[in-house]
């Protein structure tokens, strides 16, 4: 049902759906957006770039940065027929963790994230 609800085909539109799904903690829709993205043959870089932002910003409940790096490595090693499964899992984990602390409290970011953004001159 989640896959049927995502009808977009353009890479930018699908990335917007993915971003909205992550921010809404909607794991099903996040996975569906990635599945459609792969189905339409878009380059994986867009999905990795979007999910990397959340691997860095969130509080590590699912060890986001480490899991992101693992998925990046495994995606490259896995046969093409199966590699997108890794990104589906990362999308699900990212949507699950968005906005929660390591203690499962909502409304938290990784310690030092805002300061790092300020020092780097990027928007938090």
Précis, in short:
With 124 residues, this protein is an all-alpha fold. 67% of the residues lie in helices and 0% in strands.
Which helices and strands, and how do they pair?
Elements: H1 2-5, H2 11-23, H3 27-39, H4 45-57, H5 64-77, H6 80-97, H7 113-120
How would you describe this structure to a colleague?
The protein is mostly helical and 124 residues long. It has seven helices and no strands.
Strand tally is 0
Q: Which percent range fits the helix content?
A: 55-70%
Q: Which term fits the overall shape? A: globular
Largest sheet: none
Low-confidence region ranges = none
Q: How far do the termini sit from each other?
A: 33 Å
Percentage of residues in strands = under 5%
Structural class determined from secondary elements = mainly alpha
Mean pLDDT: 89
CA-based gyration radius: 14 Å
Total of DSSP H or I helical runs spanning 4+ residues: 7
Order of H and E elements: HHHHHHH
List keywords for this structure.
124 residues, mainly alpha, 7 helices
């Amino acid at each position: 049902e989640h896959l049927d609800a995502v009808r977009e085909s353009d890479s930018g539109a699908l990335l917007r759906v993915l971003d909205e799904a992550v921010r809404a903690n909607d794991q099903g829709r996040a996975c569906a957006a990635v599945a459609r993205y792969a189905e339409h043959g878009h380059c994986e870089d867009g999905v990795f770039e979007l999910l990397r932002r959340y691997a860095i910003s969130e509080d590590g409940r699912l060890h986001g940065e480490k899991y992101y790096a693992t998925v990046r490595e495994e995606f490259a090693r896995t046969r093409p027929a199966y590699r997108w499964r890794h990104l589906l899992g990362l999308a699900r984990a990212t949507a699950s963790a968005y906005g929660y602390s390591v203690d499962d409290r909502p409304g938290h970011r990784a310690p030092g994230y805002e300061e790092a953004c300020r020092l780097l001159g990027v928007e938090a």
